[in-house]
Structure formats: C-alpha cells, structure tokens
Amino acid sequence: MTCTDFLATMTDYFDGETDAELLSEIRAHLDSCEHCEILVNTTRQTIQIYRDHQVYEFTAEVREHTISSIMHRCGLRKTA
Amino acid sequence: MPVLEQTGTEEIHPDIALVERARAGDAEAFETLVRQYDRPIFRVAQHITQNREDAEDIVQDVFLKAYRKLEQFQGNSKFSTWLTRIAVNESLMRLRKRKTSRTVSMDQDVQTEEGSIPRDFADWTPDPEQQYNQSELGEILQKTIAGLSPGFRTVFTLRDIEHLSTEETANALGLSVPAVKSRLLRARLQLRERLSRYLKRKDGSIKP
Ligand SMILES: [Zn+2]
Q1: B58 contacts: CB under 8 Å, gap ≥ 6
Q2: Chain B residues inside the 8 Å CB shell of A58
Q3: Distance between B32 CA and the closest CA of chain A, angstroms
Q4: CB contact under 8 A, B121 and A71
C-alpha cells in the first residue's frame, strides 16, 4: 500500500468501514510509514479539538429570547 | 391530517409523537422539539455563516419554517435530519445574500484541489491548552474553520461535530454518499493542515 492508497481509504478507516483484509493492509502501512501515522494522529486531534471546544456560544439569555420569539412567531404563545 | 409512515420495524422515535402533537397545535410539544434541537441548529448555522447574529436569526427562521411545513414532514427521515436540511438551506441562502463568500452552493466548491495532498508532517504538541489559552485557541479554531469553503465546513460540522452519519449528512445536503465522503476527507485534511501551523511541535521533532 502506498501513501496515496492509504489516503483514499482514510475516511472509511476513520469510520470503521473497512473490511478485515483492507484493515490489515492499512495497519501494516501505518506501522511502516511515519508520515501517515502522524497524519492519522493529527487528523484525529483536529476532529477532537473541534468537538471539545465550542467555538461559538449560544448564551442562555439569547437562547431563551430566541425560543420565546419562535413560539410567538408560530402563534403558540401570546406574550413574546 | 396525514398519518406518518414508519419505515420497517424500527422503533418509533419519540420525536414522531411530538411532531404529531405539534401538528395538532400542542405548543408544549413543539417547544420540546425546539429545546431539543435549537443548539445544534445554532452551531450548524454559525459554522456555515460564520456570523453569530445570522445564526441567531436562522434558528428562529428554521423553526418557524418547520412549524409551517410540519404537514410535509413524512417521517421517512429523522426529524433532526429534516430540520438540519432546512437549517443548511437557510444558512446558504443567508450567505448568498451577504455575498461575503466566493462560493455558496453545496456543489460549487469541489473544484479546488487545495489541501487534498498533505504537506505538513510535523507532529503536534500533545497539549495545545498549555501553548494557548482558551480564547487564543478559540480564535485559532474559528479562523481556521472560517478558511474552509462553506460546503466543506458544512460537511465537517454535520459529520464530525454533530455526529450525523454519512447517510444522514447526504440526506440533509442533497448529496450522494461518495460526495459526502470525499468532501469530508478534504475538509479534515484542510483543517489539519491549517491547524498544523499553530499546533506543531516547536522543536521540529517528530517523535517525543
Ligand atoms: Zn504513508
């Protein structure tokens, strides 16, 4: 398996959607290729860091105002 | 009132009952749905538009639209996926109006090969929190994801942040499964490459 071959399977590898044969080829490649090993680790870190950090905040105050406006605009609540 | 169809023998999702009640004008049921999904809708809208005020407006517009179109919800996709699809469309429409982005359609931004080939193979610092404080890191993350095209940002947000499956993402975006997979790969690689500038080990070494 070349690095390009690995790249083509990376999404399925991350999603656990590779069959056993392909998975062992991938593992063999990752064992022998430091670049792809780092690629996998840093890509996992990329995903994790975005999951862990809320980039934007929907504050409680804004949220309650938003929900109350929604209910009002839908005609489901009399007072906004 | 049309009866919602159930697919196969799967268990009935609790949302279906709430939708039925909301259709009958039950305010409490609709508010439960709103409170269940307003935060993910906000995140999706903000990631696509990169604008907090727009995202706040979009949350309102999405639920208003959903309430008005509740009769059209067929129940053959999840209610959350159906809402997400409305949110993506509203967000892209907002972007188009603002014209702040070069490409705002889900299928206009795939021509670029940028970031498809990884170049930076330096290992990262094991603990970014020690290198940057919360607000610095937040700024870096926001700047980095803002640099992706809307289509890539959207796929990354739905799959990797909101945990939608590939099929649900395809459904919400009106894309094929292979298209979602290829965009997700490029989005992840581009984000990784951009974050590498900030998070790679300063000593340049590869292994600890
Ligand atoms: Zn390799």
Answers
A1: B41, B42, B45, B49, B87, B90, B91, B94
A2: 38-39, 42-43, 56
A3: 10
A4: no
The domain in which residue A37 lies consists of 3-54
pTM: 0.85
Amino acid letter for position A46: T
Domain count, chain A: 1
Give the C-alpha separation, B190 to B109, whole Å: 13
Quick: pLDDT tens for B153-200.
999 999 999 999 999 999 999 999 999 999 999 999 999 999 999 998
Class of CATH domain B1-101: mainly alpha
Q: Would an 8 Å CB–CB cutoff place A78 in contact with chain B?
A: no
In a domain, A40, yes or no: yes
Nearest by CB to B56, which of A47, A53, A66?
Answer: A66
Pick the CATH number of B127-208 from 1.10.10.10, 3.90.1640.10, 3.10.105.10, 2.40.10.10: 1.10.10.10
- CB–CB of A55 and B137 under 8 A? no
Residue B200 phi/psi, 5-degree rounding, is -75, 155
Q: Which tens digit of pLDDT belongs to each residue from A59-75?
A: 999 999 999 999 999 99
